[in-house]
Amino acid sequence: MCGIVGYVGDKNAQDFLVSGLKRLEYRGYDSAGVVTFDNSGKATLVKAKGKIADLGTKLVSERREDKVGIGHTRWATHGEPSEVNAHPHHVGNIYLVHNGIIENYKELKNALSNYEFKSETDSEVLAALIDSFYKEGKYPLTNAVVQALKLVQGTYGIAVMSDKNPNEIVVARAGSPLVIGVGHGETLIASDASALLGHTKQAIYLNDGEVATVTAGSVEIKTLNAEPVSAKVEEIETNLAAIQKDGYEHFLLKEIMEQPKSLKETLRGRVDTRHGMVHLGGPGLPESELRKIKHLVIVGCGTAYNAGLLASYYIEQFTPEITVEVVVASEYRYRQAYIPKDSLALIVSQSGETADTLACLREIKKQGIRTVGIVNAIGSTIAREVDGGTYVHVGPEISVASTKAFTSQVIAMVMMGLTIAQAKGVRSSFLKPYIEEIASLPEEIRKILEEWNEPVRALADKYKEYDHAIYLGRDTAYPTAMEGALKLKEISYIDANAYAFGELKHGPLALVDDRFFEFALLPDGQLYDKAVSNVQEVLARGGHIIAVTNKKEFDLEVENVVKISTSAKLFAPLLMNLIAQLFAYYMAVAKGYNVDQPRNLAKSVTVE
Ligand code: F6R
How far is ligand 1, taken at its centre, from the CA of residue 493, in Å? Predict the structure, then answer.
């Protein structure tokens, strides 16, 4: 989603702003802009529709040696992508960049009738509101920002400057992340710590309801109620290598291929095959509390939801005494759902910033239910607000489509389930096969990716002209089919939907014709024969089937078979998902699409 950067120090501000925005490109955007100031307050404001490269081209003739400024990448919410709607917005003496949504902007706009608005954005209204307080002259910039924010409903991460005092930047957040990088003689601002790498590793993560006044050598933080906050400087854990392509053509392929390593990081120190035990420190619950859990609520969006659904099938298998409910965050936040007191909520999010997931977390906490985060981004809002947490530790996921995070989210949640099962006294001989198989997965993943990367590329080439796909699975292969379909539609824009095999006859079977192909997941196991019967039904109606299976004696006459060989049984569907990931990737490549930044989408969905 939108990105914010800011710089005040002794180096060229335009250089940092542009390179910082480039780092945030992966989040998705459609226009960009920067403003810098010289010592006298003379502003150079440059905006461009399109890519950062377009902004860079414009900046060639607007090159300045200014040492302070702010910049933004915009992902359109109010008003189309255009130069005039791009940030920074300039109103009176104020320059502002904003992530989030000002919900009451219409009302505020009506009250600001002495201003003429150039754009269609809610952000320009906020700039005008700040200017109106600033103009009254009673307030220094920080106070004008605070007065304005007290009238605002909605979410924001903002950076604000005034041309009257161009050596300070005021930043504030409510529901949209902001991090302040503390350097030597310079202070940097970003909506995502990755923009700061290479400049500083020291960062202050702003909390909701806080406002900071930032100069080259100081950071002063207060709450909106003017209470001073002592800044906590933390070390940024990511490194530069983790956010580079490492020789791959796309981040997506790099991230798919990284999964043996990233899953190993998820498992590090947590799986003890010798004693058949899982050790998860993060949830912070003593055994006596774990034993009392009767109900799990798993909350997530998109891929995180699919991961939760897949994990729930496993958790139900080995923790007989608990029920598991998996919910879509954007729906759940507005439902009047009763959560029993002996519940534990797992809040699943790669970015740790997804607005709907965060809103659910807050609602669930209000009900007094304990929350545990299954999060990747260290220091993110969800990671900081949950009662306890298990980081998945897959490193930065840059490509918009989530891949390595999915695999590790599933396993992290299964480990959470195993931790509960252990505490409840489920026999270790019953849990051991899960634990042993989990430990073997990084190597199984490595083998499958190595063997199937090239063949799946060729397979995708054969199917690239199709506009419709049906993904099918039963039991644990069903959530896997959902994730496969999501990946395909997301990056190759093919209309792909997933169905449980058993649902076919209840409607979707009517779709089968030459415009569709079917991606059938057929793990060996007790429901294999039933799934095969369903495949026969599709075949009988002229279906174009790609079967993915680990069944050794697979003899169905389908169009194409991907027969993976693996010692894993329980988690075979998770391995089949690797094939679905590669397939979606190569379909998008074959169609010539922007694989890492699919149209209309953003990496981190910080608005509702
Ligand atoms: C799909 C995808 C999205 C995210 C969803 C939740 O590939 O990336 O569906 O999974 O937006 O994001 P997080 O996990 O950051 O909360």
Answer: 17
The phi, psi pair for 291, rounded to 5°, reads -60, -30
Ligand 1 site residues, Cβ closer than 6 angstroms: 301-304, 349-351, 354, 357, 401-402, 486, 490, 604-605
Q: Which of 326, 605, 607, 608 to mutate to test the pocket of ligand 1 (most atoms within 8 A of CB)?
A: 605
* Stated pTM of the model: 0.87
Q: Is 603 a catalytic residue?
A: yes
How close is the Cα of 479 to the center of ligand 1, in Å?
15
pLDDT value at residue 25: 84
Instruction: Name the active-site residue from 222, 424, 487, 603.
Output: 603
> What Å distances lie between residue 549 and 307, 444, 531, CA to CA?
20, 15, 11
Q: What is the pLDDT of residue 600?
A: 86
Exposed (0-12), middle (13-18) or buried (19+): which is 299, by Cβ within 10 Å? buried
Distance 386 CA to ligand 1 centre (A): 18
| Pocket residue to mutate for ligand 1, from 326, 330, 348, 350, most atoms within 8 A of Cβ | 350
Distance between Cα 348 and ligand 1 center (Å): 9
**CA-to-CA distance for 295 and 452, rounded, in angstroms?**
39
3-class secondary structure for 489-534? HHHHCCEEEEEEHHHHHHCHHHHCCCCEEEEEEECCCCCHHHHHHH
Query: What are the distances in angstroms from CA 591 to CA 461, 487, 494, 586, 600?
Result: 9, 15, 10, 8, 17
pLDDT value at position 255?
Answer: 97
Separation of CA 564 and ligand 1 centre (Å): 27
Q: What is the DSSP letter of 112?
A: -
Establish whether 301 is a catalytic residue.
no
Residues 6+ positions from 461 with CB-CB distance below 8 Å: 586, 590
Q: What residue ranges do the domains of the chain occupy?
A: 3-236, 251-590
Of the candidates 2, 49, 67, 301, the residue annotated as catalytic is 2
Residue whose CA is at the smallest distance from ligand 1 atom 6:
301
Cα–Cα distance for residue pair 389/188, rounded to 1 Å: 29
Most informative mutation of 299, 354, 408 for ligand 1 (most atoms within 8 A of CB): 354
The confidence score (pLDDT) of residue 281 equals 79
3-236 homologous superfamily: Aminohydrolase, N-terminal nucleophile (Ntn) domain (3.60.20.10)
The CATH number of the domain covering residues in 251-590: 3.40.50.10490
The answer to whether 228 touches 198, Cβ cutoff 8 Å, is no
Beta-strand runs (E) in 116-270: 154-162, 169-174, 179-182, 187-190, 202-205, 210-214, 219-223, 228-229, 234-235
pLDDT confidence of residue 246: 84
Spans in the chain with pLDDT lower than 50: none
Question: Mind giving me the DSSP string for 79-94?
Answer: S-S-TTTSSSEEETTE
The pLDDT score that the predictor gives to residue 1 is 67
Query: Of ligand 1's atoms, which has the minimum distance to the CA of residue 350?
Result: 14
User: What gap in Å lies between CA 99 and CA 355, rounded to an integer?
Assistant: 12
